[in-house]
């Protein structure tokens, strides 16, 4: 397993910027890496990307120096295992609402004694053909993997104080659109009540000493979030493409 550069930066209080992408094409991941982004998050929730395609995407990330992460579609330990074994270095889980769900998520990501992740001869551990012994790899993997539950609904906000006490969590990523919808605002997250709720969530997570993440559509938004202590800033690949295209099209007047 490679060193998780994104986790190292976050542990040092440094911001990271990346993209959530629903493409199965490894070239997209490779281009994002060479562009200088910190992480490439495979969208395993809102896309047809399968675990069979993940290994090539991860290889492209490794070649271009970008950290491969994934948003999984469900809190299924076998599904999480397949992504991790392919070499993904962190998992973002949508819709976490209760302590029981979060504890199950941590256990799925981590090897014993922290969790219950099963061991196999897989590319994440160099098929045990590298320099690490099994014991060394297990300890290293538990240190390097990122655990990032998402706060996406009102129940999670109500339970946040309890969620923040669960061991093994690196941080929380706020999903503003789904959170707004769960609060009854179906047209987006621009409402004052949603903004106040998100602001309160950010402050609680920071106070607990954990990483705060959320979405940023522009560089200015990312800078404003970082100034507030949000270190994990996430855009979509389609959002980045649209922004770049809009800027480019200004050339024709």
Automatic annotation (TrEMBL):
Keywords: Lyase, Metal-binding. Pfam families: HpcH_HpaI (PF03328). It comes from the Bacteria. GO terms for cellular component: cytoplasm. One of its GO terms (molecular function) is metal ion binding. Residues 20-239 form the HpcH/HpaI aldolase/citrate lyase domain. Belongs to the HpcH/HpaI aldolase family. This is Host specificity protein. It comes from Spirosoma profusum.
């Amino acid at each position: 397993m490679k060193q998780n550069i994104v986790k190292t930066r976050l542990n040092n209080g440094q911001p990271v910027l990346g993209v959530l992408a629903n493409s199965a094409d490894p070239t997209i991941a490779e281009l994002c890496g060479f562009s200088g982004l910190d992480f490439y998050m495979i969208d395993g929730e809102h896309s047809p990307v399968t675990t069979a395609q993940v290994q090539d995407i991860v290889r492209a990330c490794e070649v271009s120096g970008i950290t491969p992460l994934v948003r999984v579609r469900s809190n299924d330990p076998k599904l999480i295992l397949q992504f991790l074994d392919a070499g993904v270095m962190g998992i973002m889980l949508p819709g976490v609402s209760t302590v029981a769900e979060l504890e199950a998520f941590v256990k799925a990501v981590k090897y014993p004694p922290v969790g219950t992740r099963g061991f196999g001869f897989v590319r994440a551990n160099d098929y045990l053909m590298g320099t690490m012994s099994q014991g060394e790899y297990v300890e290293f993997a538990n240190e390097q993997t990122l655990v990032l539950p998402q706060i996406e609904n009102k129940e999670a906000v109500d339970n946040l104080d309890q969620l923040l006490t669960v061991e093994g969590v690196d941080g929380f990523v706020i999903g503003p659109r789904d959170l707004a919808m769960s609060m009854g605002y179906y047209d987006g997250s621009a409402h004052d009540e949603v903004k106040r709720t998100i602001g309160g969530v950010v402050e609680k997570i920071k106070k607990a000493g954990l990483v705060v993440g959320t979405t940023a559509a522009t560089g200015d938004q990312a800078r404003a979030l970082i100034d507030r202590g949000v270190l994990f800033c996430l855009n979509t690949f389609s959002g980045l493409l649209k922004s770049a295209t809009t800027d480019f099209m200004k050339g024709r007047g």
